[in-house]
């Protein structure tokens, strides 16, 4: 049972994006900007942008996980970060793939807090032990998640799988 994993396929990812967008729309939240947490939240942010008709997209890069169940002591926001003046007065939807510990979302939410009119979070997955409970969640799980974009080794010339 401990080896069971949550498997997200690209097809299910498409379903998750549309269903999350519907949650946001049904809630009446109209973001001015979607701020994606790189790398895992980039695809979600793009998909939500299209589904919600939001063209103003930005990204912030936060380093936390270094492998399966291995992470830094605290998440680190890497440059470049959006300028506070660019966020001033906006309603922001923060997009990430998973709220596991919640520490990544927490650092991004805190970064936005003093500058934006309102910030809410949208994630594909939420773990029960997260310190941040996103406003919009597609699924909740305790399992390790295999995302379609990170479940296989990178394709590189050194791996012998690139042309």
UniProtKB/TrEMBL annotation:
Q: From which domain of life does this come?
A: Bacteria
Which keywords does UniProt give here?
Glycosyltransferase, Transferase
Q: Mind listing the GO molecular function terms for this protein?
A: glycosyltransferase activity
User: Cross-referenced InterPro entries, in alphabetical order?
Assistant: PRTase-like, PRTase_dom
**Which region is the signal sequence?**
none
Residue ranges of domain Phosphoribosyltransferase in the record: 6-150
Q: Does the keyword Cell membrane apply?
A: no
* Coiled coil residues, start to end: none
Q: Does the keyword Transferase apply?
A: yes
PANTHER family for the chain: HYPOXANTHINE PHOSPHORIBOSYLTRANSFERASE (PTHR43363), HYPOXANTHINE-GUANINE PHOSPHORIBOSYLTRANSFERASE (PTHR43363:SF1)
For this entry, the protein name equals Phosphoribosyltransferase domain-containing protein
